[in-house]
Amino acid sequence: MSGAERYNIHSQLEHLQSKYIGTGHADTTKHEWLTNQHRDTFASILGHPDLINFMAICENETKARIRFNLVEKMLQPCGPPPEKPED
Amino acid sequence: MHLYNLTLQRATGITHATHGNFSGSKLQEIVVSRGKILEILRPDPNTGKVITLLSVEIFGVVRSLMAFRLTGGSKDYIIVGSDSGRIVILEYNPTKNAFDKVHQETFGKSGCRRIVPGQYLAIDPKGRAVMIGAVEKQKLVYILNRDAQARLTISSPLEAHKSNTFVYHLVGVDVGFENPMFACLEMDYEEADIDPSGDAAQNTKQAITFYELDLGLNHVVRKYSESLDEHANFLITVPGGSDGPSGVLICSENYITYKNLGDQPDIRCPIPRRRNDLDDPERGMIFVCSATHKTKSMFFFLAQTEQGDIFKITLELDEDMVTEIKLKYFDTTPVATAMCVLKTGFLFISSEFGNHYLYQIAHLGDDDDEPEFSSAMPLEEGDTFFFAPRHLRNLLLVDEMESLSPIINCQVADLANEDTPQLYMCCGRGPRSSLRVLRHGLEVSEMAVSELPGNPNAVWTVKRRADDEFDSYIIVSFVNATLVLSIGETVEEVTDSGFLGTTPTLACYTLGEDALVQIYPDGIRHIRADKRVNEWKAPGKRSIFRCAVNARQVVIALTGGELVYFEMDPTGQLNEYTERREMPADVICMSIGSVPQGEQRSRFLAVGLADSTVRIISLDPSDCLSPLSMQALPALPESLCIVDMGGSEDGQSGTLYLNIGLQNGVLLRTVLDSVTGDLADTRTRYLGSRPVKLFRIRMQGGEAVLAMSSRSWMSYYFQNRFHLTPLSYESLEYAAGFSSEQCPEGVVAISTNTLRILAIEKLGAVFNQMSFPLEYTPKKFVIHPDTGKLVIIETDHNAYTEDIKRQRRIQMAEEMKEAAGPDEQELAQEMADAFLNEDLPDSIFGAPKAGPGMWASIVRIMDPIEGKTSFIHRFDQNEAAVSLAYCKFSIQHRAAILVIMFVYRQLPEGFSN
């Protein structure tokens, strides 16, 4: 692989990572990955009316409250990020 | 292997609703989404009944739905945000009765994704632009305009993205004709994601951001952003331009705030709470949905809280500045997903779960003694207003639309011993839940039943004039007599109608403009408007045996199988055709279609013969009475009926169908080619054990067929689809269409010696349902194997048991008395008593929310036919039944044992069972 090509692939990946949130890279931590999974899941539940119904029945809350709670929970679904090790 | 699925009952819950003038007429319609179905509803302003105009499966998920109108336009378009990664603009086409796709622009991947727009939609109130947003980051703005032919155009998308930002809600701000502006509730999570201490997340504030679309530069800019104190869940646009002060109302937990750009200070008002509420005191209160009503001179908002209480919100203005927000308790309805206030004064509530309602707004709540709360009233921080919920005062229920959503459990069984099994369903949530019993069949409402002096053979209705709106006479034929009843405010016998009463009747009809015809075994009696009577006598010893008639033509079969044809000439005279025609076998039945609009005659006669054939005979003058086609039948025919179905309401004709009822109980439906008279494409259906009799009636402006065997069925064309549905009614013998002022589209029928007037209203419905209320969300039920009774477990999270509810009320009453000073004891006692005697049923006002981890549960034994509960076991607080089953053990041979599984959770402090 020539140097130019390698550079090209690298920039393509960077482009993807900035365009599609959650695209992984070599240094993705467990916490980042998990947070993204949760946010994706919550966004999907928000988009599917049947899943909102399901949660509203289980929790016995209004659908508007369920939606509000879901967006609220997207802020930090898995707690604060771990301390970055000093390197 | 093939899997086949057929939808018996389409979804009935509503996820989104919006209103507008979609058909372009003065009437307002409501567009609703039922998850994957788009439906257009029209509340009839006179009767208040909600009619479904169109229902379309879209094969996707509707996530947002909005109506908009171009400036100066008179027709609203529909914008749909879905999981398709596209923005779709639809126009309702009333002549085709369909949604026309005006635009469909792709912007992203399909699926309900985090960063693909479709979740939120916002419209510029002047209809110049639309913003479509995702849960995170992406927002696109499309500019809407007209081209030279006044067709709607859409621009390429303009991006208004912001990374690391969640969106709670989007609305268009009403800025009149300045550059379109959108307000967005956002939350930036970038800081929180990199702060390991968690402080940043704690301090992350929600912000309201205004995006301006610069129409000159074709560019979207973030105009202004401000962080908010409380987290809000949605925004309401305040009318602007010449109609109001512009800006937005921010609905957040416990507060509603008015905000606008410029010098306007924020105006904030707490959301009033119910006085003496049993809810968990830690809970906040949010508004769940809102509706805006705007006229030329005023505007107000209706907003509904989580408990279902609707508040009327008005703004006090000083020139262009808002000085005060005023809230007034309006009424309490079931919690809605969307509310629509219509110009005709109706309020449409699409419930989250359970039936949907249409209310009439009888009062605007302007001059009553209900206290009004204002942002100007002094209150300590954290303090709020209180109000007392009550029964409806301003709203009047006019219609209810059944909704099964959510169906939690269902079993199919024939517990009522009716041959066809019933569907038993557990529906709904909390105190509005129900057990519903569904039976295949159209609901029939009985308008009148009257006894007759004997057992009649047949019944017809006729109009005195063809252009009359309603029928004038009911004619009942007995073995040796005919009875004529006139339809007025009451139905009574008349003798001056001109009909011959001393003979049985074979058929009667309104002939031409204003004449009547009665066909009886010995002749044809033609009664002119001035009561002159022309008689045609059957020749010699032969009598009329069968006949077919419409508004211009009469065909009779004489004994021996000879056909005689009559047609009305322009002077209104009935003339016999010169030739007669001999049939190869005995005539059993005949039918002739109605005269198509603008034509002289119906061109086809269908004749059913004893050799098990049906023949189509031409009535065209060029080849009159010559056979055109023939179909062999599997059994002897009993009855024939030619109908024109599938035409539009304005009289455009559809397809001709020949319905053939056989003596073995089978109904055949065959397409009759309207040019050649050929028969093709036969459909077969078994209706019942008795020979099938067919009757042509009118339904919703079109023709329909009533088919009677051991059960009665109706075959009709509704919303571009054929329906053949049994009527949920006892068996009938003979029927005719019936139209009067009280019942514009009914049926008059005979059953033994009674005459019945019936109305069939819920066209399109496949099931008719009976509903029995339950207390908590039903989780599961089993059928007792021996008695057929149902055992239902009902369990709710976040709820109190009846017992604890009572305890809490007594406790609150005590506190009330304790809080009062010594000289107020009497008053406090009165208040406490009033509070304890208050009757606010949970099914209307909602059950109190007990907080997380609080469970209430019961087991109920119910008779599914009567709906009577014969036994209830109430579990203690926090015992939750989750499953049940019947078991038989080998040592216990006699009875089935009911096994119920429940879980128990420790009660929190301060509670005891």
UniProtKB/TrEMBL annotation, chain A:
GO terms for biological process: mRNA splicing, via spliceosome. It is found in: Nucleus. InterPro entries: SF3b5/RDS3-10, Splicing_factor_3B_subunit_5. Its main location: nucleus. The keyword Cell membrane does not apply. Keywords: mRNA processing, mRNA splicing, Nucleus, Spliceosome. GO terms for cellular component: precatalytic spliceosome; U2 snRNP. Belongs to the SF3B5 family. This is Splicing factor 3B subunit 5.
From TrEMBL, chain B:
Residues 445-759 form the RSE1/DDB1/CPSF1 second beta-propeller domain. InterPro entries: Beta-prop_RSE1/DDB1/CPSF1_1st (IPR018846), Beta-prop_RSE1/DDB1/CPSF1_2nd (IPR058543), RSE1/DDB1/CFT1 (IPR050358), WD40/YVTN_repeat-like_dom_sf (IPR015943). It comes from Orchesella cincta. Its main location: nucleus. Keywords: mRNA processing, mRNA splicing, Nucleus, Spliceosome. This is Splicing factor 3B subunit 3. Residues 14-401 form the RSE1/DDB1/CPSF1 first beta-propeller domain. The keyword Nucleus applies. GO terms for cellular component: spliceosomal complex. It is found in: Nucleus. Pfam families: Beta-prop_RSE1_1st (PF10433), Beta-prop_RSE1_2nd (PF23726). Belongs to the RSE1 family. It comes from the Eukaryota. GO terms for biological process: mRNA processing; RNA splicing.
